[in-house]
Write a structure and sequence with these properties.
- The chain is α/β, with parallel strands linked by helices.
- The protein has a single domain (6-230), classed as Aldolase class I (TIM Barrel, Alpha-Beta Barrel), CATH 3.20.20.70.
- The chain is built from eight helices and eight strands; from the N terminus they run βαβαβαβαββαβαβαα.
- It has helices spanning 19-28, 51-57, 78-83, 99-108, 154-172, 189-194, 204-207, 219-230, and strands at residues 6-9, 33-39, 64-70, 88-91, 112-117, 135-139, 177-181, 199-202.
- Strands 1-8-7-6-5-4-3-2 form an eight-stranded parallel sheet.
- The chain is globular, with a radius of gyration of 16 Å.
- Bound molecules: D-xylitol-5-phosphate (DX5) and zinc ion.
């Protein structure tokens, strides 16, 4: 069976002065998902975008908006993102005192839910909440900034996560996506896919690749990511 791979450009590296157009163009060029990085200058040392921006871009695209919360705490703001049109909401387990409750909250609001694992965070959290998870996101950099280098140890962790997810899917028949985030590019995406990821965030690799006004300007990079994925 052919594997499904999804490409999720992180708009953190987009031109914020033209955000709507950037999103339209990257989806037109063949991307699948809009990865939306939320940072609070508390859980991570950077500050980005919130529900207002999510609400503003929602009418621009039918693509899945994948909200990655790098904020602490999470419960107060989850409903705002659901209302703003997020499709997937993921958060870091260290950032919630009551992980099971936060996951349920996301689901109850009609979104897909997920947990995000920093490079040194154990996957053990998964064992007790698998039923409440639609996506597992492994950070392949320490969160906070775009443009960092992929941490190779993530490949081992991906294999571990793949195994847990495959075992679960076999038992339940329910699908869980495995996403990777940080330093993904056309040179390393083949081995990342081989290690088990099916959904790939790429910020600087996509938005750093083109700078003219051609609406299909991201086609070359997205095609090259897909060509590398085809080798996995
Ligand atoms: C990092 C963010 C990533 C980041 C990825 O904290 O979660 O989504 O934007 O950017 P690149 O692909 O440039 O590493
Ligand atoms: Zn992210």
């Amino acid at each position: 069976m052919e594997k499904t791979f999804r490409i999720a450009p992180s708009i953190l590296s987009a031109n914020f002065a033209k955000l709507g157009q950037e999103i339209t163009d990257v989806i037109t060029s063949g991307a699948d998902i809009v990865h939306f990085d939320v940072m609070d200058n508390h859980y991570v040392p950077n500050l980005t975008i919130g529900p207002l921006v999510c609400e503003a871009i929602r009418p621009v695209t039918d693509a899945i908006i994948d909200v990655h919360l790098m904020i602490e705490p999470v419960d107060r703001i989850i409903p705002d993102f659901a209302k703003a049109g997020a499709n997937i909401i993921t958060f870091h387990p260290e950032a919630s005192n009551h992980i099971d409750r936060s996951l349920s909250m996301v689901r109850d609001l009609g979104c897909k839910s997920g947990l995000v694992f920093n490079p040194a965070t154990s996957l053990d959290y998964l064992d007790h909440v698998m039923d409440k998870i639609d996506m597992v996101l492994l950070m392949s950099v320490n969160p906070g900034f775009g443009g960092q280098k992929f941490i190779p140890q993530t490949l081992n962790k991906l294999r571990l996560a793949r195994k847990k997810i495959d075992d679960y899917m076999e038992k339940t028949g329910r699908e869980i996506w495995l996403e990777v985030d940080g330093g993904v590019n056309a040179d390393n995406i083949t081995e990342i896919a081989k290690a088990g990821a099916d959904t790939f965030v790429a910020g600087s690799a996509v938005f750093g690749a083109a700078n003219d006004n051609d609406p299909n300007r991201y086609e070359t990079i997205i095609q090259s990511l897909r060509a590398s994925l085809a080798k996995a």
